[in-house]
Structure formats: C-alpha cells, structure tokens
Specification:
Helix content: 25-40%
Radius of gyration: 21 Å
Number of helices: 12
Distance between the termini: 24 Å
Number of strands: 17
Shape: globular
Structural class: alpha/beta
Strand order of the largest sheet: 1-11-10-7-6-2-3
Length: 385
C-alpha cells in the first residue's frame, strides 16, 4: 500500500467526507460577539480598546516588555528590522528555507538577504554551520561585523521558527551576539511554543514578530505582533507603526518616515477572542501530532515525522513528515486529488529572481529538505475527532 493511501485512510477516519484543508480557522460565538461589539461601537479603525487588549494579552503570553499590533506578520518583521537599525546596503542573515515574507521584509529596508543553512531536525538555522561560517567571513571593526568578501555590515540575523518548532535558537543567539549581530525571531508560526516553561519563542532574541494570518493557530484574518524584552524597541516600533505621528494640541506632525501598520480595532476584537483559545488549540494539535507520531514510530508509514525538541511545549502548528524524494511529488499529487490538503516546503529563497545575487553559505541541508518534506493537515479540530 502506498504512503499516500495510508495517509488518506488515517485522515478519513477523522473526517470521512469532504476536503480536509491543510489548516483551517475556527470561529465561535464569542468571536462573533466581540466583533459585533466593535462594529456597534463605531471604533473599527486603528484606535480602540481591543487593540490595547490584544497587545496586553500577547505581552502576558510571551512575557515580553510590551507588544505592538500590526496589520500582518510581514509588517511586524519590517519594524523589527528597523528597530535593530538595519540600513540600506546592510546584510541580514536569514535561512534560505522560509516563506518569502521573511526576505521581502529585508528588501523593504533596501538591505540584502544573506542566506544560511538549517539543521535537519527542526529546520531552524544550524548553529554549528553558523559558527564555522561566521568565523570564515566576518571581520570585526569597532565592534561591528563586516563581511570581508563584500565589505557590507552584517547587522542582524532572522531566526525562523519553522512550523512552530523551537529549534536551537538559544545557541544561534549566543553566536550572533558574540559578533554584535542582533537577532530577530520570525515567530509567524510559533505562537504558543515554548523552549521551556516560562520561555516563549520571540523573547530569546532581541525582537520577535508573530502572524495571525488565516492559516495560523490563532487568526484575526490578518494581523501581526511585534514583541521585545527591550522597551525602547517596543516604543520605536509603536511610533513607526503609527506614521511616526507626533501630536501637539490637536495638530499633526510626523518627525520621520513612518508606516501605516497599526492593526484595526475590528481585527483586534477577533484576535482578543481567539487568543483566549490558544492553550486549547495547542492541546488539540498536540493530540493529533501524537497520533501521527505513534503511527510513524510503529513503522506503519514509511517516513519520518519532524518532531519539536520539546513536543509538550510546542504549538504543533504544522505536522510534517520526511519521505523518500522519489515519491514526494507523487504523494502530494495523490493526496490533494483525494481531498487531503498537503503541501511541500516553500521554494528556497536564494533561488528566487530578486535573490539570485545575494551572498550565501552552502545550503546542503535546505536543498535536501526541499525534496523530502510534506506538510500534513494540522487543524486543531482534527485532534478532537
């Protein structure tokens, strides 16, 4: 029996009919009630009580020193780069294995992505390769890391928590900080994932950026959130996200180029309700992960499951398996044709037209993984069935 048929049979036990999406949102009565309350209040734009409530809830969840609600995760990443002082022509270290939004935000700063490889267990930047690579290319000048091959400043590094995995972010942060390189955590997929009790993703590095897109564990249709343990970064992001507006006695003044990045109150109302369901969703997704892990470990499926370093502390946003590259395309095609929504990894960013001339380390692991990994349906409700 083919792997595709085995996977299809498993999911059809959970949901016998209809399409099973890769990840779908869930909304209930409280979600509707808060959105309706916001509509009736008339405060539906970027000012309103729900924006502040959402920021406070995320601050409490991740234990940061503040949070800034944004229109999407990409805008939060852009602000994070600006907070770490990324300037035109700087280089920003980033994994080639990530969604394109991560590198797009670097281009927004007129900076250049500099691609790194990942480790094969959790798909985060590989600290061992990073250590060797930085030692070979960096020249320190007055405490600033300079790429000796290009002459550019290496200002920041973006660590991406792929599929909500915790990864080896603490090791990566220690290495980067030795070179004076700031670390941004791309937590688009990792709300609810902890490295250990009390240490949430997003506050290990200097700045974190979350997403509340429709396919995330918690959604408000779009939306993002910047967090940091550094109050000055939070204040800078808040200022920039509100068009750098300075108001005096009812008049408008803007002291620098700013961005209209604030999350509307209407979306924030939905986000407040959704955030209250985070723990329950993570628990349900963990139950689904454990079912699939048990099947794989019993060798019923001929594949490997990608397991977080701390499964009990992960949000298990997307459950992924590694298969023989020879059957990847066939398995994906068959499953999607049968109504089981699966997908491969993203196209590696260094292969995209706007990134072809960017510097890069060897990307052996990333290139292999792109031919092996399949993401399986991971909606929280499947863990209840």
């Amino acid at each position: 029996m083919s792997l595709a048929t085995q996977i299809e049979r498993f999911y059809r036990q959970l949901q016998p009919e209809g399409v099973i999406p890769l990840h779908e949102p869930e909304f209930g009565a409280e979600d509707e009630a808060l959105v309706l309350d916001c509509v009736r209040s008339g405060w539906v734009s970027s000012v309103g009580q729900y924006v502040s409530q959402a920021e406070n809830l995320v601050t409490e969840i991740v234990q940061s020193n503040g949070a800034v609600a944004t229109v999407n995760g990409t805008s939060a990443l852009h602000l994070a780069l600006l907070c770490t002082n990324v300037r035109p022509d700087d280089e920003v270290l980033v994994p080639a294995l990530t969604f394109v939004a991560t590198t797009n935000a670097i281009h927004y700063c007129a900076a250049m992505p500099h691609f790194l490889d990942v480790e094969t267990k959790q798909l985060g930047i590989c600290p061992d390769k990073l250590e060797v690579y930085l030692a070979s290319i960096v020249e320190m000048r007055n405490g600033i890391a300079i790429n000796r091959h290009t002459g550019r400043v290496i200002r920041s590094l973006i660590y991406v928590h792929i599929f909500g995995n915790q990864g080896k972010v603490e090791e990566v942060v220690r290495i980067a900080h030795r070179y004076g390189i700031k670390v941004i955590e791309d937590c688009a997929e990792s709300l609810g994932s902890y490295l250990r009790p009390g240490l949430h993703t997003g506050v290990v590095g200097d700045v974190g950026a979350f997403s509340f897109n429709g396919n995330k564990i918690i959604t408000c249709g779009g939306g993002g959130m910047l967090v940091s343990k550094h109050p000055d970064y939070v204040a800078k992001a808040k200022h920039l996200s509100t068009t750098a507006r300075v108001s005096e006695e009812g008049f408008f003044f803007h002291d620098q180029v700013g961005y209209n990045y604030r999350l509307p109150n209407l979306n924030a109302a939905l986000l407040v309700s959704q955030l209250k369901q985070l723990s329950k969703r993570a628990s349900e997704k963990k139950a689904l992960f454990e079912q699939i892990q048990d099947i794989v470990q019993s060798q019923s499926w001929d594949c490997d499951v990608l397991s977080p370093s701390h499964p009990g502390l992960s949000n298990h946003w997307l459950i992924a398996i590694k298969v023989n590259p020879d059957i990847l395309d066939e398995t994906i095609t068959k499953l999607n044709a049968s109504g089981i929504g699966v997908r491969p990894l993203w196209g590696l960013n260094h292969t995209l037209p706007m990134n072809l001339n960017c510097p890069k380390d060897t990307l052996t692991n990333s290139e292999l993984l792109s031919k092996q990994v399949i993401c399986l349906p991971s909606s929280a409700k499947l863990g209840r069935m």
